[in-house]
Amino acid sequence: HAIATEDADMLARYIEPAFQGLSRQSPQVVQSVLPVLTEAAIELGNTALADSATALLSELPEVYASPAGHFLRGRNAELQGNLATALKSYLEAARGWERYAARARIALADMAIRDGGRGALLAARKVLIDGSDAWRGDRYELQVLMRHASISRQLGDDLESLLLLAKVMSRFPNEPEIASARHEAEALLEAVYMSGAAGEIRLSQWMEVHLLILPFLEHMPEFAEYSELLADSVFELGGTVLAASEYRRTLALLGAAAGNKETGALTPDIVRVKLKLIKALSHAGLDDLALEEVDAIELSNLADLRNDVLAAKAEVLAKVGDRDRLLTTPVMNPGPTH
Known about the structure:
Order of helices and strands: HHHHHHHHHHHHHHHHHH
Radius of gyration: 30 Å
Low-confidence stretches: 1-8
Shape: rod-shaped
């Protein structure tokens, strides 16, 4: 009961009688209970009892050689300051596929984060990557992902860190850590999107993380800017249809931020992105859609952007061959198509 309820005072009072009572239990019960009591002794800081308990594990070869046995010996060594032994035991435990193996990976990550050295961080990241599919579905997976994100960020891999945080938000939406994950992801956004725009990240990777974080961070006022930045980069690389799709997403985000999901309120930013959408559609050969978009823009109250809209309209009309409408579209400083 003391273990189940995490009652430290009760556990401290009854831990030694609990060990004494093991002598009256069947081998099956001892094999099941001894690891739990051993960990309790370790976490209570009862060094003598913890050392005796870990030694007693050797009488249960299956437990002793399992990830549980290696983890418990590692934890006992760590709390006693024997970090070399702890590291060796944790590494052995981390080779497994069960819960104690996941806990060993978390412990290794924590040791590396405390160490702070690049070598330790790289080694811990490799362990986390190697075991990424070994344990899923509970708080230990959540802790593995959070540690992995932290290590990746310390190593300067902002993209990987952001991707891992997106997985946390996707897989564990109701856990308390979600607020911390969201805060860290928000802090990484600018660095990742600037790197993408500079060509330092492959477009496929950038798009993957963009789509993963979108449901969780689209509420941010600046997220529309990041969406537009991605669309600009895609357009420059010749992905006109994909760019058009992303410009539409940007418009939806701007409209939502303005309290109008239909983006009917033509703020300067909305008009500016609409012009980019029209250009992307036109370059994709979708001139009819481009013309629909430009025709839908209400010209009244456009101020400085009015001539830009008319120029875009004239360009599309020229491409579709609508000479009559082209000649009646007033554009200041018209180009050769008008």
